[in-house]
């Protein structure tokens, strides 16, 4: 069942322009002490629940496609969001999850793509 989801996310990523508006090492706009450990941006031309493009973290494993998705609950904003992890290694998935959970204090669960 989840492979259908990941195939659809791969299609969205392949047919959209990736815009990195917060490069690795840049500060979070609301929390300047929070430094992005990976490139962060969105898929241009897509729409997420907040009305903006689908958020993503982009890692260093070019060609891996969408390897995971993070579902987060932001109590301060009173919303739930989905962020895709594109071209990430297993370590980078953990790094992105720790950033969201430990640095930004968000409730998070990560759904990893099953690989055969």
From TrEMBL:
Name of protein: Inorganic pyrophosphatase
GO biological process, one term: phosphate-containing compound metabolic process
Xref: InterPro entries: Pyrophosphatase_sf
Domain of life: Bacteria
GO MF annotations, alphabetized: inorganic diphosphate phosphatase activity; magnesium ion binding
GO CC annotation terms, alphabetical: cytoplasm
Species this chain originates from: Rhodococcus erythropolis (strain PR4 / NBRC 100887)
């Amino acid at each position: 069942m989840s492979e259908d989801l990941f195939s659809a996310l791969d299609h969205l990523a392949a047919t959209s322009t990736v815009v990195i508006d917060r490069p690795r090492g840049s500060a979070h706009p609301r929390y300047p002490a929070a430094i992005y450990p990976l490139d962060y941006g969105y898929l241009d031309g897509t729409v997420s629940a907040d009305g903006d493009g689908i958020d993503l973290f982009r890692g260093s494993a070019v060609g891996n496609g969408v390897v995971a998705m993070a579902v987060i609950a932001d109590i301060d904003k009173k919303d739930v969001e989905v962020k895709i992890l594109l071209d990430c290694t297993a370590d980078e998935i953990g790094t992105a999850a720790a950033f969201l959970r430990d640095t930004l204090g968000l409730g998070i669960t990560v759904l990893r793509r099953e690989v055969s």
